[in-house]
Amino acid sequence: MVYIVEINGSKYYACSICRSLFVSEEMAKACEEYCSKNPGSKSPESTRDSIGFINPEGEPQKVYFRVAPLKGCTKTVFRLCRAGVNIYSSC
Ligand SMILES: [Zn+2]
Fold this sequence. Notes:
Layout: E1 3-7, E2 10-14, E3 20-22, H1 25-37, H2 44-49, E4 52-55, E5 62-67, E6 77-80, E7 85-89
Antiparallel strand pairs: 1-2, 1-7, 2-3, 3-4, 4-5, 5-6
The structure holds zinc ion.
Zinc ion (ZN) binds at residues 15, 17-18, 20, 31-32, 35, 46.
């Protein structure tokens, strides 16, 4: 079951296995299916389409958004979302 992530009234969706964050539920479900069949590895699609990742167990719950790599910086940077975050499982 994918996670639903609410931030300031906007909804995002996250894979419950690798915790990658997506803009659509379909992408999160596809990632979850891949993750359940290929434990420990990430699909190239979800790596490309993911907009960040979540930490639902944290107190408070946290969401990190991917930031476009700066010029000359090859590593992806993540920025912590400081808005009110509500993460829950769909069922
Ligand atoms: Zn996944």
